[in-house]
Amino acid sequence: QVRLVQSGGGSVHTGGSLKLSCTASTYAFSGYSMAWFRQAPGKERRGVAAIDSDGSTIDYADSVKGRFTISRDNVKKLLYLEMNSLKPDDTAMYYCAAEPWDSDYPFGDYNYWGPGTQVTVSS
After folding, report:
1. Which long-range contacts (CB under 8 A, 24 or more apart) does 64-71 make?
2. Do 68 and 82 touch, CB atoms closer than 8 A?
3. Per-residue b or e along 14-53, where b marks 16 or more CB atoms closer than 10 Å to that residue's CB
4. Do residues 49 and 68 make contact, with C-beta atoms less than 8 angstroms apart?
5. What span, in angstroms and rounded, lies between the C-alpha atoms of 14 and 45?
6. What pLDDT, in 10s, does the model give residues 15-49?
7. Percent of the chain whose predicted confidence (pLDDT) is above 70
8. In this structure, are residues 70 and 2 in contact, taking their beta carbons and an 8 Å threshold?
9. Alpha carbons 56 and 37: distance in angstroms, whole number
10. How far is CA 104 from CA 79, 86, 118, 119, in A?
11. Whole-number pLDDT of residue 86
């Protein structure tokens, strides 16, 4: 069992920046692919950014390419999502997710989920 704890998020105006963090309660963090998903009210949850277990492969949704950066620190067991040039369409609940052995990389059926953190971008 993996427990994910998220921090960061909040409210900004268009063009602002936020950074999300996610820490995992597993000694085997380096064996998990990690991803950020988001869900806006009334919409399906969608993958935003993913990074494989050793950080060598990264994928982004087209809507965030060039604005968001995903990264991980396998020593500290931390996952990050740096979000720049935020737009109102980025408003959503953001979730970090983990899956062992890269089996569902990049945006498949992840088994472990954080509680979510709200990001609100106002115009």
Report:
1. 64/90, 70/34, 70/35, 70/36
2. yes
3. eebebebbbbbebeebeebbbbbbbeeeeeebebbbbbbb
4. yes
5. 22
6. 999 999 999 998 899 999 999 999 999 999 999 99
7. 100
8. no
9. 19
10. 17, 28, 25, 25
11. 98
Q: 70: pLDDT confidence band, cut at 50, 70 and 90?
A: very high
Residue 117 — very low, low, confident or very high, per pLDDT cuts 50/70/90?
A: very high
User: Which two tokens mark 67?
Assistant: 């604005």
The predicted pLDDT at position 101 comes to 87
DSSP string, the chain: ---EEEE--EEEETT--EEEEEEE--TTGGGEEEEEEEE-TTS--EEEEEE-TTS--EEE-GGGTTTEEEEEETTTTEEEEEE-S--GGG-EEEEEEEEETTTTTTTS--SEE---EEEEEE-
> Taking all residues of the chain, what is their mean pLDDT, rounded to a whole number?
96
The residues, any chain, with a CB within 8 Å of residue 29's CB and separated by 6 or more, are 74, 77
Q: How far apart are CA 84 and CA 81, in angstroms?
A: 10
Amino acid at 117: T
